[in-house]
Design brief:
heterodimer; A: about 600 residues; 7-stranded mixed beta sheet; 21 helices; 10 strands; about 60% helix; globular; disordered N terminus; B: mainly alpha; about 0% strand; disordered C terminus
Chain lengths: ~600, ~55
């Protein structure tokens, strides 16, 4: 294993960094302890309240099982909630170290592509190149398009549009294109192949996705921050979603812009030196990445063996294991990505992530990992198995009355009057309110905080949008629960989900498309409600919020994929699109309708 | 998707080629080998009497 770079660096910055790290370590440990303790306390309380409610008619084995299931499920909700509360109660960090002089290192901006639309993707590169040039910083930035495209037709188009990009931007000698004959190891393998071929030519690599867009000023700032901290191995930004059009996409975009910065700050408080890597919109120190992140092929067949799919979490853990610092700087703006426009595309992406995260069960015990890295693996696994626990709890609740002992109205043979079991309904209601509160309270507090600080002003009708997002996410939750449960089942049954390309098009779905993808959810919802009505009618009102959205899943999926108009889910970029987004629009327009770019040139002052 | 009439430029393979500057990326150990834990325990168990005799 490599020695800690802090030992190798040996300069004052490294020593100061180590002292700061020690100081940060105490705060980090306290934050981790408090959040974990609070989430466990909430989970245990929920389990005890449920056990008390469930055993009011006499204890049985299913009561214990249900109490256990709700304890585990509540922990996951509480963990998310306390992370939000931590973000709300934390102050933004003081200014971080940054290198103010001339940038010494050379940076490559890596754009991996896989059957993407090359015109749109390469227009993003042109936009980022213009944005970098506009900073006036003389630092060297190269672009490398690493194609894993399988379609020969798209590959031909890639070469055509790359030639156009090169000619337009005078990119010869600083813009490169390479296509692999075989996409071994998928994105991680693509990156590894680049480092093996050209890694020594660069000090830093900005890793992007095909739909990533980053402002030139942000890129320069990231390099400055990395140059200032010699043991910083990876610097992650919090990308904001742009260009969402559908109801689903815009609600996600609103959530990412309005809630995510708060949750990310909570995460940043807990990260210490072991921050996250989300696979894109992040800067890595090439030497650190090369010496620490060579991913082996896991023994055995997929889905648990083979190439590591969710490679980003693993690379973050490996960097930390080798002594490098991995950091999320939640104050960095100018980092963007696009998101899925409908529930089906979201579920497809989730299927891939589910397989990747469950594969981490093989890596939790990897030698030498930091404890927090192991916890991050467990957390990633939990994100996908938590819905299975909820579903198991619902099924167990439908079945419970069949296993419950009958009421004993005369427990004392010498007492002639009947003894009725105490009414425990208030406990069930209290528990439901508590669980629902864990879901909505952080979001409501974020609205209140945003109203108080004035941040909400940039989101139009923030309170209305939050309410609408809560309603929409509540009716979508049972659908996601079913998709995630199916994903987990497929992985456990060792069915490889493959690596389907993302659909980054319009995303509108017809009712027929939605029905084809979700009829089984409708059927499951109908059967579940039918069984409840037949066997446990008292449970029916409790199950309707889950069962009804399942029954009308195709309608919800098709409806939410339609375009969203008006001011609902407004985000700051609606009224004032970021300059880099405007530049991308202009570059794309120039390649399709040259006259349309002139307006943007006038608006941004940058010659596209 | 494409508007190739605007894009009649030819792709220059040599100009697009990545710089040749190889950097080794050694494979990391991420799995505990089967039986390694047992072997380590066994080694400790066997080694202990030898030390006490010495």
């Amino acid at each position: 294993m490599a020695r800690s770079p802090a030992h190798r660096a040996g300069d004052n910055k490294a020593r100061n960094g180590a002292q700061n790290a020690a100081q940060d370590g105490g705060e980090t440990s306290l934050a981790r302890f408090l959040t974990l303790a609070a989430s466990f306390a909430a989970a245990i309380a929920a389990g005890l309240v449920f056990y008390s409610y469930g055993t009011a008619d006499g204890p049985d084995a299913l009561d214990v099982v249900r109490a256990l299931l709700i304890t585990i499920s509540t922990w996951w909700l509480a963990w998310g909630a306390v992370q939000g509360l931590l973000g709300l109660t934390s102050r933004p960090k003081p200014p971080l170290q940054r290198h103010a002089g001339a940038i010494r290192g050379r940076t490559v901006i890596i754009v991996p592509v896989y059957n993407e639309d090359p015109q749109v993707t390469f227009a993003r590169i042109a936009a980022m190149d213009i944005s970098l040039a506009a900073t006036g910083d003389p630092a060297q930035f190269h672009f490398a398009v690493l194609s894993d495209t399988r379609s020969e037709a798209i590959a031909r188009d890639e070469k055509q549009w790359f030639a156009r990009l090169l000619a337009d931007r005078g990119g010869k000698g600083r813009m490169f294109y390479r296509r692999r004959a075989q996409n071994i190891g998928k994105k991680a393998g693509n990156l590894e192949d680049f480092i093996a071929t050209s890694g020594a030519a660069y000090d830093y690599a900005l890793i992007l996705d095909a739909d990533s867009l980053m402002d030139g000023g942000t890129i320069v700032e990231m390099v400055r921050r990395m140059e200032a901290v010699p043991d910083l191995g990876l610097l992650q930004t919090l990308p904001k979603i742009v260009r969402a059009r559908s109801r689903f996409g815009r609600s996600m975009q609103f959530a990412a812009a309005f809630y995510s910065p708060i949750f990310a700050r909570g995460l940043a408080v807990m990260q210490g030196r072991t921050g996250p890597f989300w696979g894109h919109n992040a800067l890595v120190r090439v030497r650190a990445f090369a010496e620490s992140c060579g991913l082996p092929v896991l023994s055995g067949p997929p889905p648990f063996g083979g190439h590591i799919l969710s490679h980003d979490y693993v690379e973050a853990a490996l960097l930390a294991r080798a002594g490098w610092q991995v950091r999320l700087d939640d104050d960095l703006e100018g980092s963007y990505e696009e998101g899925p426009e409908n529930i089906i595309d979201h579920a497809k992406r989730d299927r891939r992530w589910c397989q990747g995260n469950l594969q981490h069960t093989r890596l939790v015990g990897a030698p030498g990992l930091k404890l927090w890295s192991r916890f991050v693996f467990v957390q990633g696994i939990f994100a996908y198995i938590a819905p299975v626990f909820w579903l198991a709890f619902i099924v167990a609740s439908i079945l419970a009355p069949h296993f419950a002992p009958g009421p004993d109205y005369f427990p004392d043979p010498y007492w002639p009057f009947p003894v009725f079991p105490p009414d425990e309904t208030f406990k069930a209601v209290g528990l439901a309110v508590g669980v629902f509160g864990l879901l909505i309270l952080p979001k409501l507090l974020i609205v209140a905080d945003a109203q108080a600080s004035g941040r909400a002003d940039r989101f139009g009708r923030a309170a209305t949008s939050t309410l609408a997002e809560l309603v929409l996410s509540s009716i979508q939750a049972p659908i996601f629960l079913m998709f995630q449960t199916r994903s987990v089942a497929q992985v456990v049954m060792r069915r490889d989900g493959g690596w389907p390309a993302n659909n980054r098009g319009d995303g509108t779905l017809s009712l027929g498309d939605a029905w084809a993808a979700s009829w089984w959810i409708t059927a499951t919802g109908a059967v579940a409600l039918g069984m409840t009505w037949q066997w446990t009618p008292a449970l029916l009102p409790w199950l309707l919020p889950v069962g009804l959205p399942m029954m009308v899943a195709p309608v919800i999926i098709a409806w939410s994929s339609r375009p969203q108009f008006g001011h609902l889910f407004e985000v700051p970029s609606d009224g004032n699109p970021p300059q880099i987004v405007q530049l991308h629009d202009a570059c794309l327009a120039r390649w399709t309708k040259p006259a349309a770019a002139d307006a943007v040139t006038e608006l941004t002052g940058l010659n596209v | 998707m494409m508007d190739m009439q605007h894009n009649a430029l030819s792709f220059d393979e040599a100009a697009a080629a990545l710089p040749h500057a190889p950097l080794a990326m050694p494979k990391q150990v991420v799995e505990i080998e089967r039986g390694r834990l047992f072997a380590a325990l066994l080694a400790r168990f066997v080694a202990r009497p030898a030390r006490s005799e010495g």
